[in-house]
Amino acid sequence: MNSKESRKSHFPFFIGMPAVIWQVLFFYIPLVLILFSSVIKTNEFGSFETLSFYKIKLFLQPTYIKVIGASLLLALSNAVICFLIAYPFAYFLAFRCEKYKNLLLFFLVVPFWTNFLLHVYAWFFVLEREGLINNLLSQLSILSNPHSYLNSLFSIMIMMVYYYLPFMVLPIYSSLEKFDFRLVEASVDLGATWVQTFKQILLPLSIRGIRSGFFLVFIPSFGEFAIPELMGGDKWMFVGNVISIYILGEQTGAFGAAFTVVSVIGLILSCFLLYFIINFLLKPRSTYE
User: Fold this and answer.
1) Each residue's pLDDT tens digit, 96-133
2) Domain contains 47
3) Cα–Cα distance between 69 and 215 in angstroms, integer?
4) What is the pTM of this model?
5) Does residue 258 form part of some domain?
């Protein structure tokens, strides 16, 4: 191989090097620093003394385990609700909406072109005491006294589903778009009901998109900080809130790192469990089993 061919073969590697360097500097090195700061003990001058797991043990108490459990439940609820909304919508886009497919995909993505805080404040006007929901219910004589839906789990879930729904729709749509719809027609022609076709063919063959959508929603929802903080009004404590409290403290940054490690371990174990549950539920089963 001459020098010219060698340069051509290594050209993709050199093109990708800036991205690799960026990832190492701003992703892997900070992760190592977080892990290291969570298991070291320093003296009053900030110098290293010894390795210690006392900060990790501190966050194994029931109070913090409940916070992690609440965050896992919030993330799972958000993923399930997004799936229940996203799958019919993705099915409609893939098979029933040839003419306006690109337009609807555009409307799905266009909110990401605006600042996230604008979305939050828009929902403030919808959920507040004098907002759209209360005015509409009052006009329909359903509600006599207006209620404020802000600073509640309801407002947190509404905002979570609204913000993360596209992350569920797009992977499922991408999976269904490659699906050969003639398989569904053949199943129906052979006498299968629509429910059987859906469970035995459509769901199993779109499992990759479903799985990707679940993890794209579940993982960031677990560590979400801004939505519970702004929509919950400090009434609800989740992993993101606890980490921010410790990290922003003057002398508690190492404790924030330790709680991050503990919560990430819980998240990883939950992801493995969720992976097997999704595969078990969506695995096609013979009608003779």
Assistant:
1) 887 788 888 888 888 888 888 888 888 888 888 777 88
2) no
3) 17
4) 0.86
5) no
Query: Distance (Å, rounded) from C-alpha 194 to C-alpha 210?
Result: 19
Q: How far apart are CA 202 and CA 282, in angstroms?
A: 10
- Burial track 231-266 (b if 16+ CB lie within 10 A, e otherwise): bbeeebbbbbbbbeebbeeeeeebbbbbbbbbbbeb
- Does the residue 32 lie in any domain? no
pLDDT tens digits, residue range 125-173? 888 877 788 788 777 777 777 777 888 888 899 999 999 999 999 999 9
Q: What is the CATH number of the domain that holds 245?
A: 1.10.3720.10
Domain total in the chain: 1
Residue 274 in any domain: the answer is: no
pLDDT, tens digit, 9 for 90 and up, residues 171-222: 999 988 888 778 877 887 888 788 888 888 888 888 899 999 999 999 999 9
Show the domain range for 207: 59-249
